[in-house]
Amino acid sequence: MRLGTTMQDYGEPSYWDERYSNESGPFDWYQNFNALAPLLHLYIPFHHQVLVVGCGNSDFSEGMVNDGYREVVNIDISSVVIEAMQRKYSDRPQLKYIRMDVLDMGAFQTGSFDAVVDKGTLDALMCGNNSKQLAAKMLKEIERVLKNKGVYMLITYGAPNYRLRLLRDSCSWTIKLHVIVEELEVLLLIWMMLAMHAEKFVLEEKTERLTWELTNPVPLDDEGSSVEAILGKNPDVHYIYICIKG
Known about the structure:
By secondary structure, this protein is of the alpha/beta class. The protein is 43% helix and 20% strand.
């Protein structure tokens, strides 16, 4: 968090315009493409129409297209970042960037997309004023633009005892939960293994285990308390909710 920035600022459009005016390189919230690729492959086929909300200046969508996804539409409330991304990817017709508020996606017809990816946008709204009302409005809009059986992939810090009720009260979803170790934790783990002169095959085995765990859903009960029983209190993970419409 920048000096002088409050959590509430994350819910304000003016904050993002100012931030992107002073930010030169790409920045990925929470997780990058390579970390999430196994889950993308599991739930989103290459030919599906994908919408990324709150795209910012991340190169996540570039990674998707390089991986084989045919078209990725990106929206953000900041005109500053959208104009910059339009210039950056002017030679990549598979990548579309549109200035749009996730609370009002009226430019998209109902049932336009097979999948919506959200890396932190819901979390940002939850930091602002009237957070619950705005979050519910955002989720309704996401449900609307999704096709039947479409997938909303939400990457968030929100634990199940907070996010499940919000998701279920707002829309009719079938929900699966995955967890992924925070990137810093993964890097520390690898550094420690190398520092201990671990053999290469041990590192590969550990990396494969982390990937395998990512692609297996965590058992969920109605209140989400089962997750704490499995992972313990306040685990260093990002939660990934796979919400299927209909």
